[in-house]
Amino acid sequence: MTRPRLISLLGSYGVVLALLLLVLFGWARYDYFLGFFNITSVLRYNSMFALVALGMCFVIMTGGIDLSVGSTAALGSVVAALASPQGAWIGLGAGVGAGLCVGLINAILVTRLKIMPFVATLAMMLAASGTALLLADNQSVSVSYESGFTSIGQDNFLGFPIPAWIAIMAYVVGWIVVNFTSTGRGVLAVGGNEDATRLMGLPADRIKFLVYLASGGLAGLAGVILASQFGAGQPIEGVGWELFAIAAVVVGGTLLTGGVGSVGATLAGVLLLGILFNVLNFENGKGWISLSAYWQSVIRGLFLLVVVILQAKLSSRGSVAVRDY
Amino acid sequence: MRSELAFEMNTNSLLSMTGIDKRFAGIPALAGASFAVGRGEVHALIGQNGAGKSTLIKVLTGYYKRDAGEVVFDGKPFEVSSPQQAQASGISTIYQEINLVPYRSITENICLGREARRYGLLDWKRMHQEAEALLQRFNVRADVRRPLMEFNTATQQMVAIARAIGFSAKLVIMDEPTSSLDEREVAVLFNVIRQLKQEGVSVVFVSHKLDELYEVCDRVTIMRDGRTVKTAAMNEIDKIGLVSAMLGRAIERAEGHATAFSDRDEKKIGKVLLSAENLAINQIVQDVSFNVRSGEIAGFAGLLGAGRTETARLVFGIDRPRAGTMIFNGQTFDPHKPSDAIAAGMGFCTEDRKSEGIVPDMSVAENMMLALMPKLSKSGVIDDKAQRDIVERFIRQLGIKCSGPDQKVRELSGGNQQKVLLGRWLAMNPRLLILDEPTRGIDVGAKGEIQALIKTLADQGLAVLMISSELEEVIEGADRVFVLREGISVAEFDRDEATEDAVMSAMAHGSAPTIAEAAP
Ligand SMILES: Nc1ncnc2c1ncn2[C@@H]1O[C@H](COP(=O)(O)OP(=O)(O)OP(=O)(O)O)[C@@H](O)[C@H]1O
Ligand SMILES: [Mg+2]
């Protein structure tokens, strides 16, 4: 392997490297960092973000953006909580369905009415949030404990949190779609050059339609996990989730302009941000310093910048990562 | 004329289009155009910039919806609403602007839309093999896994062609496929076209290089102002016939010259303005030395990949050389970025107008003023009147066909976009102008005018560094010709030494007299 090739590889997998370093740091510094309990709780909590970020990753690869994911998750959690007395599966289906509805509207606005994604999904962010508050009557909605709905978010399967299983499965499917289906390649092509994609005879609008739909569905699923994990539908949760998701996608090396992106690196980006949060909590727990939530935000922001800058520096010397299969 | 066209259509044709109208915002781009292609026929489609060739093609493939007219393809009425449907019905198209996805690999650009599958999933191995095999037909060797943007324009063009051929189509349409290819590659392409013809595939071939039409085409259709003015068998019409039908008036060929560069007045050539010694960056530019004097047109000749564009990029500060020195206007010149070069008084009209030059959503005027902005607005305000005047002058001088300075550049025909870009750098009034393929994609009429304009500017003291794959243009236009071969400047010819044979042999073998001493 030649040197530039190596540098470009580091560039595209820089986020993985940063993740490894952070984990090493935590392992060396804190006693229970790599303990079973900490690992599972980090995974359980971050699986919601992972799902939202996966949808965002697809949208951004087409050169679009979905600002509505946070409110959609909140709406999904409320709808799921309201439906949960009917049974765990019905709760799940209702939450995901609510997300799909928002995604469907986004998709129609963007591909049929040709409204800019930023504007369309911003409007839907407000609309979904309002709907969630209306349905929940402005307070959190307790879920039914009899129906087993809480298992989705709280139980383990083979010793591993169910939400983490769901997220892993979603990422595996996402990875296969991007790398081994024509729709997936079409997603990247549309983001790379929409006009050319159309002239090449690919169904550009259908592809864009699908990504917004998927993003809505995944946000709804995240909402289901939220409700189930905390035992209540949360109409005011989800604020800022879209930013977290965008950050995770970008740290993963996906270009905001579209056309280049990686599902695997997005997952690494989610974990990086999640574990950073975890590390800061441990640091607080050590009692040496006490970081307020505000300071945590500042530190996470700075850390993000450093990773992005490093990545840009490394990859501009090599070339853009174009594949991850 | 009507009856003649009607007769053509009755023959066993694969495609016939009649009475096609297309208006953009009320302005007709096509007005009753007709076009017929026989089975297994190679059919040339020519016309001036803005005549409507590309629009006719895009109407056929469903990219634009026609306002009126009928299309019959393969014996059936043909109604498609998207390029996708046209592709599925057997029409494969290479559009004028290379329309591929730069970030994606060559394989994807070739196979997108008809991917090989295995167990329902993409079979990358087979797709890579297929892409390699297709490119092999064109003698192109490239790592098909690399993103397309890492390759030069010619390779990208070949990829676009390979993609179109890969769909087993009944009709392959090529809108100016040869404008970015050199003679070797054109020859390869023509072989492939002949193979297609043998397989019974029809080909529509658009080009401004009239000579090459005679090599492969059976018939020709000539368009003017959105109408079809003539269809003829290729062997029944000579070049003068083609040109006068295109321009709509009788012409006589200028004596002995293929280009509009008439002999230049040697006395107007001044001192050396730019000299470069031993420039190197990588394998593509290994050791290039040359110099340009003010009032002189210096030409770069060479095959594709000889390092001409790459050298120009070094001069203009887009890339930084690894070795070598440059002196500009008597001072050491080491540009770190293009704005350094612009500040020093250079302009660079690039060959790849789509990705490096034109801002499609801006108006003609804005595009022309782009490089000039910093100069014009020095005092903080932009003089509207002065701006208007400059723009209008160049629209006139270059014969840009547009509805006015405010029309968006994306709405212009390909050749007219090229002219806007040229206008941008001419408006800068630089001391040294680098022109990379200045007349690519420009019709025969306008080509002469542009060449004449370049010459006039040189007479007024502008130093011009001109890169061209058209040998005639370099030989007749340049006062001195530098020949590059595999990244090395191998020969320098004065105007009277620069014969076609001498330059060609230097391009191919590099066995020319050792490079002359730098001119005084
Ligand atoms: N989208 C558009 N909007 C408005 N006008 C357009 C549009 N597309 C083309 N035109 C106009 O239609 C006319 C024909 O353009 P077309 O691109 O078909 O020319 P062409 O024959 O292909 O020329 P060239 O040789 O330069 O490629 C031009 O005057 C052009 O300005
Ligand atoms: Mg054209």
Provide a descriptive summary of the structure in words.
The complex is a heterodimer of chains A (325) and B (520). With 325 residues, chain A is an all-alpha fold. Helix content of chain A is 74%, strand content 2%. Chain A has a two-stranded antiparallel ribbon with strand order 1-4. A two-stranded antiparallel ribbon of chain A has the order 2-3. The radius of gyration of chain A is 20 Å and the shape is globular. Chain A starts with a helix and ends in an 8-residue tail after the last helix. Chain B folds into four domains: 2-90 and 169-237, 3-Layer(aba) Sandwich (Rossmann fold), CATH 3.40.50.300; 104-167, no CATH class; 268-345 and 430-520, Rossmann fold, CATH 3.40.50.300; 357-429, no CATH class. The radius of gyration of chain B is 23 Å and the shape is globular. The longest helix of chain B has 16 residues, at 183-198. Residues 1-10 and 512-520 of chain B have low confidence and may be disordered. In chain B, 51% of the residues are buried. Chain B is built from 19 helices and 22 strands. In chain B, helix 15 crosses helix 16. Chain B has 520 residues and is of the alpha/beta class. Chain B is 34% helix and 24% strand. At the A-B interface, helix 8, helix 9 and helix 10 of A face helix 3 and strand 8 of B. The complex binds adenosine-5'-triphosphate and magnesium ion. Residues 53-54, 96, 175, 413-414 of chain B line the site of magnesium ion.
